[in-house]
Amino acid sequence: MYFSVHHKSFFTQNGRFDFPVMSLRAEAAQCGGVVVEFESDDIRQARKSRSITGSALIYLKGPKFLIYVSGALSMWGDRMWHFAISVFLIELYGRNLLLTAVFGLVVAGSVLLLGALIGDWVDRNPRNKVAHASLFIQNISVTVCSIVLMLVFSYKEWIEQIWDGWLTVVCYTVVIILADVANLASTALTIAIQRDWIVVITGYNRGHLAGMNATMRRIDQVTNILAPLAVGQVMTLASNVVGCGFILGWNLVSLIVEFIFLSRVYRIVPALSVKPQVDEEEDQDFLESHGDRTSSQGDCPLRAAAELTEGNCNISLNLKEITNLPVCFQRFKCLLSTCKEGWQAYYRQPVFLAGMGLAFLYTTVLGFDCITTGYAYTQGISGSLLSLLMGVSAITGLMGTVMFTKLRKAYGLVNTGVISSCLHLGCLLLCVCSVFAPGSPVDLSLLMPLSEPNGTAAGPGGVEGQSQKHTWILGGSNQPLLPDRSSIHWTNNTVLFDNIPSGNTPDSYISIILLFLGVITARVGLWSFDLTVTQLLQENICESERGVVNGVQSSMNYLMDLLHFIMVISAPQPQHFGILVIISVLFITTGHTMYFLYARKAKRKHQLDT
Q1: CA distance 140 to 411
Q2: pLDDT tens column, 225-262
Q3: DSSP string, 524-576
Q4: CA angle 141, 145, 147 (to 5 degrees)
Q5: Who contacts 88 (Cβ-Cβ below 8 Å, separation ≥6)?
């Protein structure tokens, strides 16, 4: 056997020349020898760098990165807008929360009523048309609303003099309607991209799906903190008009970039263009259900056929009744029928209990929203310290996303939810302890006003004096009464009025320390649980019902969120906050109990299948 050592070239100070003496490739090849080639370190390193560069370019042009960038731009714009609109509405109405409360109720009510319709629209239309239409409506609504706000801020005094001030009311109405339309379009875009596109892009691979969900949630956490800071600095250093212009410009640029990126993703992922028709799926399910009924009856095929015929007759009669109505009533009845079918589809899902458990987590004051931050402010916590605590909570939220991916890989998705639930509940026990710890302002006697009729006549040191001591608490925050929540808790920075004094220093800080320690640490389990339920909804809902079920899920989230604010309205004083904490923990415990029931049912089904 012959060995040939081959060097392609040799370099000297005089230049480059070949080294033919060392080249015996031809002789070795003719004699059946083995050719051994030695590459220099420079050549090997260059080849490796080219490989890394090529992989990086492939990733940057791939659908995942494009979705991440598009999602980051959309989330950044949403966070800036939801923070700024609350400040704008308060500034327009003389630092009063009335417009903010009206905006919050309109937003929550519209999603609650129209969530199923939005999801049904997502299901019934091609993916690219849904994404483009939602993106266009959202950004154009925010753009027009920003223009209206700029005009109102610039010519406020002149506008107030027209029509005896009614033009101002018209402007307020237009602003709230446009902002609500933008929120509805944002809901549709979130359902389309984060609940449908991602599933298809990952090729229904559970590991890749978990990774994309976690990455999108990390982006959401980061933008949730940085976006309000950015627009807040612009509004503080310049003016509200400049802030509106900044948001306007951002939305126009974001619209173009997101449109290009989503279009490219749709082109390079052929599976996105394939979407089953809802009607065909419903007909198939209908036939399968009747087929199962026929097979179960066995010796009574005629009875099954009669039932099937009777059902078809009922459907025909219903259609005939609808067609006999005027056109407007026909459409209204069809919309009601769609809403009803959407809620029924949500109820019959195998992950119904898990989704309900997630919705129950919205009925809580244990988050960094305007309620908790306002309470902390009355207990002597400064605005700068609150901002620091919110930053720490964002870090723990990111830790929750990392923990989710690790737990899912080690223990499976269902068990990850169980572990996250236990961790969440365990951390919230610190909040319960804070109610009874030294320094807590809780007064349980407020729960029994009828048993102590003399308590209402108390002097300045009594209950009445205490209730009047902090009447400005909820008005001390420039956040909307009902903020938009694509995630469980809205963590935007709270802007407090400078002319409002901080609360009296408590006798002890143990209570407030335990409260925030529980809230911050609980976010690890909270976000891990949120990602678990999100992926369960993605994996277990059929493709033809993915939009409508997630739309109903959004409606449930807003419904439980409304209950949370009704609780606060019923017990608005700092002495009530401990009671609200206990009620919140009860709701959260109920939600996690629902998930435990789902997990038990899922494990039993898995054991029977195996």
Answers
A1: 45
A2: 888 888 888 888 888 889 899 999 999 999 999 999 99
A3: HHHHHHHHHHHHHHHHHS-GGGHHHHHHHHHHHHHHHHHHHHHHHHHS-SGGG
A4: 120
A5: 149, 153, 175, 240, 243, 244
Most distant CA atoms of the chain, gap in Å? 114
Distance CA 376, CA 10 (A): 75
d(C-alpha 444, C-alpha 452), whole Å: 12
Say what the pTM is: 0.74
Give dist(CA 408, CA 538) in Å, integer. Answer: 15
3-state secondary structure 479-523: CCCCCCCCCCCCCCCCCCCCCCCCCCCCCCCHHHHHHHHHHHHHH
**pLDDT confidence band for 172 (50 / 70 / 90):** confident
Three-state DSSP at 61 gives coil
* Dihedral of the alpha carbons of 550, 265, 217, 543, in degrees to the nearest 10: 20
User: Which residue type is seen at 454?
Assistant: N
N- to C-terminal Cα distance for the chain? 58
- Show the tokens assigned to 244: 């509106």
Residues in the chain: 610
DSSP letter (8 states) at residue 35: E
Instruction: State the DSSP code for 194.
Output: I
Cβ atoms of residues 204 and 399 within 8 Å: no
What is the amino acid identity at position 44? R
Residue with tokens 């959407």: 342
Parallel/antiparallel/unpaired status of strands 34-37 and 3-6: parallel
Mean per-residue pLDDT of the chain: 77
Contact 574/434 with Cβ under 8 angstroms? no
Which three-class secondary structure state does DSSP give residue 23?
coil
Taking the C-alpha atoms of residue 242 and residue 537, their distance in angstroms, rounded to an integer, is: 41
Phi then psi for residue 15, to 5 deg, are 140, -160
Report pLDDT digits (tens) over 298-339. 333 323 333 333 444 444 444 445 556 667 777 778 888 888
Tally of CB atoms within 10 A around 432: 18
Q: Are 407 and 528 in contact (CB under 8 A)?
A: yes
